[in-house]
């Protein structure tokens, strides 16, 4: 799920000079107009500053790379997260090439050449490997300083769904298992494609 263009809502967003524990709402509205590039940069700068000040942000997420966990156009909430609190299965919002992307942590690794003198979870030189739930390949390794926050909930059907609960983890694992089964069955049994499309 990559955010390539964005703009703030017409409604007032809380000033950066007045930190608060409440979340700030940002809205993403993809557009082909070149003038939206400045709004895109404004969104990134504003959300980065809010998260670094300890506030959470909410915005509508474009893209389908996190389907079915996060569907296109749904509102997600992102909260600040410390690198040593990040664990496998978390959905991170990170910055790369002036874009922000929200993908799931698949695994972690150390930078090459780092001495094995401390636990990996406390390493300042740790790299995170992320992938969209609907993707088959991982993103380029993400460094701790690229991480802006952690996605904790998504709004769907008028209610907020907590993505950090045990139930959410079980659903994610079930979907991952079904996806692997689908990839293995379809090449062998082409008729199985219709079966999976019905589910």
Q: What this model shows, in words?
A:
- The protein starts with a strand and ends with a helix.
- Strands 1, 2, 3, 4, 5, 6, 7, 8, 9 and 10 form a ten-stranded mixed β-sheet that branches.
- It has 199 residues and is α+β, with helices and mostly antiparallel strands.
- The radius of gyration is 18 Å and the shape is globular.
- The protein folds into two domains: 2-163, Umud Fragment, subunit A, CATH 2.10.109.10; 165-199.
- The chain has three helices and ten strands.
- Strand portion, in percent? 25-35%
* DSSP, total strands: 10
CATH architecture group name of the largest domain: Ribbon
Unreliable residue stretches: 4-21, 27-34, 115-122
Overall CATH class of the largest domain: Mainly Beta
Distance between the termini: 23 Å
Question: What string gives the helices and strands in order?
Answer: EEHEEEEEEEEHH
Please summarize the sheet with the most strands: 10 strands, mixed
Mean pLDDT across every amino acid position: 76
CATH topology of the largest domain: Umud Fragment, subunit A
Helix content: 10-25%
**Class per helix and strand makeup:** alpha+beta
**Total discrete domains:** 2
Give me the Rg, rounded: 18 Å
Q: What is the fold's blueprint, element by element?
A:
Blueprint: E1 2-3, E2 24-26, H1 36-52, E3 57-60, E4 75-79, E5 91-96, E6 99-110, E7 126-131, E8 142-143, E9 147-156, E10 159-162, H2 166-188, H3 192-198
Parallel strand pairs: 2-3
Antiparallel strand pairs: 1-6, 3-4, 4-9, 5-6, 5-9, 6-7, 7-8, 9-10
